[in-house]
Automatic annotation (TrEMBL):
Protein's recorded name: histidine kinase
Shown residues within the full chain: 333 to 597 of 597
Coiled coil feature spans: none
Span of domain Histidine kinase: 41-265
Entry's localization field: Cell membrane
Organism: Paenibacillus eucommiae
Top-level division of the source organism's lineage: Bacteria
Length: 265
């Protein structure tokens, strides 16, 4: 709490009262703290892959290069970690652009059945590797006014999480439900539901999964190439479309993300 005192004086008189201003600065403080935590997290996240690249390159230079098999596996690690760095920096830039509202959205009507089919197709290679079935439940003739590139990013992030955090032979499903039918019989809102039959998220972690760099299982997220930023990007993009997102999950059963969006902007 910030307190300011200033005397109130009327003409001729010395002073007739005191103006006390109480200013609640907790919100400001919280924002400052969040920002500095973010910077600390970013540095930490960037340092890890850089240390790996440096360490393995050093070992190669010190002689490991002579053993072809070892050299190859070290180079693969260097390559993978450089890719991770690339993704991380891309995601961080994306988030900071969104937070400063510097991304203009280009709205156009998106035919959802075609769009979902294309998005699932983009993920089909990943899914096949784990024999995961991708299921689509979208009626034809549903349209959503959206920025198509951003909408694709939302889908790709949720689908790749669904595939990453689901065991072999599981299922990932996309369902579109129109609702809020107006007197003309048109729907005004859509629910986009992305669910999986995966490992689930413990109750205590659920409220935090949209936070930047929050991961339930750091090792698993890293080994699957995760940056820990996917869901916070999704949340921002949904909000830029004036929508909301929530998550329900049961450990060992699966996870369900529900996005609720207005159809027209
Ligand atoms: P990451 O890059 O680690 O996947 P995200 O922001 O996309 O980061 O997700 C945050 C965390 O939420 C993940 O690390 C994971 O622990 C958990 N999570 C996200 N999606 C799912 C899912 N479909 N099933 C189980 N856990 C999930």
């Amino acid at each position: 709490l910030e307190i300011n005192l200033s005397p109130i004086s009327q003409e001729g008189e010395e002073w007739s009262g005191v103006l006390i201003v109480l200013h609640d600065i907790t919100a400001v403080r919280r924002l400052e703290r969040m920002r500095s935590e973010f910077v600390a997290n970013v540095s930490h996240e960037l340092k890890t892959p850089i240390a790996a690249v440096k360490g393995f390159a050093e070992t190669l230079l010190a002689g490991a290069l002579d053993d072809k098999a070892t050299a190859k596996s070290f180079l693969q690690i260097i390559f993978d970690e450089s890719e991770r760095l690339n993704r991380l920096i891309g995601d961080i830039l994306e988030l900071s652009k969104m937070e400063s509202k510097r991304i203009p959205l280009h709205f156009s009507p998106v035919h959802m059945a075609e769009f979902v089919e294309k998005s699932l197709h983009m993920m089909s290679k990943e899914a096949e590797k784990k024999n995961i079935e991708l299921i689509m439940e979208v009626e034809s003739d549903i349209y959503l006014e959206a920025d198509e590139d951003r909408l694709r990013q939302i889908f790709i992030n949720l689908l790749s999480n669904g595939i990453n955090y689901t065991q072999e032979s599981g299922k990932v499903r996309v369902r579109i439900e129109p609702f809020a039918i107006n007197p003309d019989g048109d729907y005004e809102r859509l629910k986009i539901i992305v669910s999986d039959t995966g490992m689930g998220i413990p109750k205590k972690d659920l409220p935090r999964v949209f936070e930047r760099f929050y991961r339930v299982d750091k090792a698993r997220s890293r080994s699957s190439g995760g940056t820990g930023l996917g869901l916070s990007i999704v949340k921002h993009l949904v909000e830029l479309h004036k929508g909301t997102i929530r998550v329900e999950s049961e450990v060992g059963i699966g996870t369900k993300f529900t996005i609720d969006l207005p159809v027209i902007h």
